[in-house]
Amino acid sequence: MSEVRVERDALGEVPVPAGALWGAQTQRAIENFPISGIRFPRVFIRALGLVKLCAAKVNKELGLLDERRADAIMQAAREVVEGKLDDHFPLDIFQTGSATSTNMNANEVIANRACEILGGQRGDKSLVHPNDHVNLGQSSNDVIPSCIHIAAALAIHEQLLPALERLCAALREKAKEFDDIVKTGRTHLMDAMPVRLGQEFSGYAAQIAWCKERIEATLPRLYELALGGTAVGTGINTHPEFGKRIAEALAQETGIPFRETRNHFAAQAAMETAVEVSGALKTLAVALYKIANDLRWMNSGPQAGLAEIRLPALQPGSSIMPGKINPVIPEAVMMVAMEVFGADVTVTAAAASGNFELNVALPVIAHNLLKSITLLANACDVFVSKCIAGIVSNREHMERLAAQNAILATALAPYIGYDKAAEVVKKAMAENKTIREVVLEMGLMSAKELDKLLDIRKMTEGGFVAGISAAG
């Protein structure tokens, strides 16, 4: 058996590895773009397979593709969807900006596999042609933008949203567990009025819930597909019903409500929906960074830091300092956030690179958008299982420091005035005394009045003004 076979395209003959399902155009792209070694992710190849499968189905229904050939293409495309042919998608993401090479990679692989299904030989274009049959009614210019939308929607629904639900639930559980623990609040990293540890965690849970809402708000635009616009948005060389029908077929296949775009020219020439989704992902990354960083600070110590909580001890933290344990999961989550920040910049620059009827940076948009979704989903799950679920509070330490906090004089300001309260704080800090001790020494209030006003638990409840809680 020979090591290569010869395939042909418009430029002539190309030797292709005998075991490869791809053809001449893919082989040329392999040789032209040995740049990063980064391939399109599994979810994008799955989206390509879904488009080719549904295109064959629709073209068969429209009478544009005979049943025998259409069924073979659909079977081959189904194998792409299921990941059985992933080894035959070798192309680098840094390639032609329209990702025509990757669209043709899919067309050639499916055509050659369909030839085998029909009992023929790879490369027999008279049996199944990659352009005339697999790519029927399509162009790279509407396929690739659509695959970006399909892949992102699949990844968001299947990976990210469930991960956010789990993270939100874990944070809410900790908010409930820590609800009765009073600690010193901080602004500018300086002591502020008391809060409950559970209130802080409720804030974290709300951040994630709101990020989930923001991501979900982008989905209606993500569901719109460019398919049916072909080369420049006019729908040349495709049936007028193709766009509507293939969106319906994709919705049936995935359970996601895809639909034909409202404007094919915008859907192919511009990628602002990808920017919108990326922006929502960046917002989630910002929230995760803040939460992870707070946990690092609260865990700092164990003797010379804040030491308010203890994170799970997962691994030794130093090659030289025995017994040192570091907050490795929050640090990993923060680095994921940094990566997503950079990916968002890339998506933004790439989406701004369209000219007239086409964006010419589609592969790098696909790579960075899908990378961000996957990284964030995985980071959320690790955050829950390896960090948040195992957090333990240092209750006595927090409550002792909260009770000694000089800023508690804020609660006395309505009685003794801002200036006098500031004087009390200054004296307490200078002499290392409590607010209670200083106020009594200065004769500003009675012990009974102070007992009512310096109730740190009530200070964390809504409506606490001048020692009177919302409940009266």
Provide a concise account of the structure shown.
The chain has helices at 24-32, 42-61, 67-81, 100-117, 130-134, 140-177, 197-222, 242-254, 264-269, 272-299, 328-351, 362-386, 395-404, 413-416, 418-431, 435-442, 447-453, 456-459, and strands at residues 4-9, 12-17, 182-187, 190-196, 224-225, 259-260, 309-310, 354-355, 358-359, 392-393. The protein starts with a strand and ends in a 13-residue tail after the last helix.
CATH architecture of the largest domain: Up-down Bundle
- Helix count, DSSP H or I runs of 4 or more residues: 18
Shape: elongated
Major beta sheet, strand line-up: 1-2
Q: What distance lies between the first and last C-alpha atoms, to the nearest angstrom?
A: 90 Å
Number of strands: 10
Share of residues in helices = 55-70%
Radius of gyration, whole Å: 30 Å
Main sheet, how many strands, which sense, barrel?
2 strands, antiparallel
Structural class, please? mainly alpha
> What is the succession of H and E elements?
EEHHHHHHEEHEHEHHEHEEHEHHHHHH
Strand content: 5-15%
CATH superfamily of the largest domain: Fumarase/aspartase (Central domain)
**Number of structural domains:** 3
Low-confidence sequence ranges:
466-472
Overall mean pLDDT stands at: 96
The first-level CATH class of the largest domain is given as Mainly Alpha
What is CATH's topology name of the largest domain? Fumarase C, Chain A, domain 2
